[in-house]
Amino acid sequence: MTEGYRNPTEWTIGNDGAEARAPAHTRSVELLADLLREADVRLDGDRPWDMRLHRAEAAYRILLHGSLGLGESYMDGDWDAPQVDEMIHRIVRARLDRRVRSPKFIGHVLRTHLMNLQSPRRAKMVGEVHYDLGNDFFEAMLDPRMAYTCGYWANAQDLAAAQEAKLDLVCRKLGLQPGMRLLDIGCGWGSLMKFAAERYGAQCVGLTISAAQAGYGREHCAGLPVEFRLTDFRAIDEPFDRVASLGMFEHVGRHNQRTYFEVARRCLRPGGLLLLHTIGNNYRSAHTDPWIDRYIFPNGDLPSLQQIARAVEQLFVIEDVHNFGADYDRTLMAWHARFEAAWPRFAERYGERFHRMWSYYLRCCAGAFRARDMQLWQIVLSPEGVPGGYRRPA
Could you give the dihedral angle defined by the CA atoms of residues 259, 124, 330 and 349, in that order, rounded to the nearest 10 degrees? Predict the structure, then answer.
């Protein structure tokens, strides 16, 4: 398995007490191969989820830096796999990601716990790094409504139908009626607001930290009772009948979760409802993947159900929890297919390293959802409890 990996530099290793000379990185390749074998992934195997290692040095990098080294070495072209998503699915399912932790991961955990990485001053970073990449880029990857959250595939056969089903599900769960005032915290390009205004007659206000999103949304929602505000969520203080938040809570951070729900509570009129649509972790001590934090979503922090429950105490009654996280696998793979089909239009603008980075991001996340390591929750909350009980619409 290690044949052909050679480097002029050598190191000394022990073999039953005797010293032996071995090519540098050979031992790392052997250790990586042994580790991957536990997830039924082979080095230089011929199955689509097997890793083709192009540089032996990458094995040491992966073992030393864990997920950060795995992602960065892929970006640098040090390894490939036709089905990266399935490779990651197997690695996560075998819990190998928890056995290889970088020293940098400890620093990442400490920063998350000790610093407010999502303060008002820092909150705009993810908008500038991620959401402002280019509206035409996201138009090419997403569905026609520009929904950048998990679709609902229960009865859908394509991405557009899955996203429309998700938006309709949100509106029905909220019991939207004509004339109701809807606040969308983290509105993106306005997919929910446009749908709610057109189909349900709602009057909508959306908050975003991305200037590109706000500009796009204003243009495409012209003539509708829809308003985009380029502002942090903490600044809003006015009455609404309903509040929704789709795919934004992941950027709030554990230090600000209580504040988030306090803002939502003060904005809700009596009898109102809040729908929270968020990716979540299975356990409270989990932390955002270091590679995702560095290259895709800076300062992200996926919540656990326990963290959400504690943050809403004495503010809301949890009426309904709906998990359809498995649908994110299919959504991400649909985005990846559209991204690859459109890539020739963007190759000169972004370059090949970005191409590998973005492809890895979409497929890596798909694999993690396939392994059920991450979830997607829609949680309906009411300030005082719905009289007679809340019923999820069929």
Answer: 180
Distance of alpha carbon 320 from alpha carbon 338, whole angstroms: 33
Distance CA 352, CA 80 (A): 14
Task: Kindly report the average pLDDT of the chain as a whole number.
Answer: 89
CA–chain centroid gap for 279, Å, is: 7
Whether residue 26 contacts residue 4, with contact meaning beta carbons closer than 8 Å, is answered with no
Is the pLDDT at 112 greater than 90? The verdict is: no
Q: Which of 150, 171, 221, 365 is catalytic?
A: 365
Question: In Å, what is the CA distance from 305 to each residue of 150, 194, 281, 308?
Answer: 18, 30, 8, 5
Q: What is the mean pLDDT of residues 292-297?
A: 90
**Are the C-beta atoms of 187 and 195 separated by less than 8 Å?**
no
Length of the chain: 394
Structure tokens at 13: 């290793």
H helical segments located in 123-228 = 125-126, 135-141, 159-174, 191-200, 211-220
CATH number of 119-382, picked from 3.40.50.150, 3.40.50.720, 3.40.367.20, 3.90.79.10: 3.40.50.150
Write out the residue limits of the CATH 3.40.50.150 domain(s) in the chain: 119-382
Q: Are 173 and 275 in contact (CB under 8 A)?
A: yes
Question: Can you give the pLDDT at residue 11?
Answer: 35
| Position 339, amino acid | F
Is 364 designated active site?
no
Which pLDDT band, with edges at 50, 70 and 90, does 81 fall under? very high
For 138, 208, 213, 267, 308, the CA distances from 218, given in Å and listed in that order, are 16, 12, 9, 23, 32
Mean pLDDT of 312-320: 98
The pTM score is: 0.88
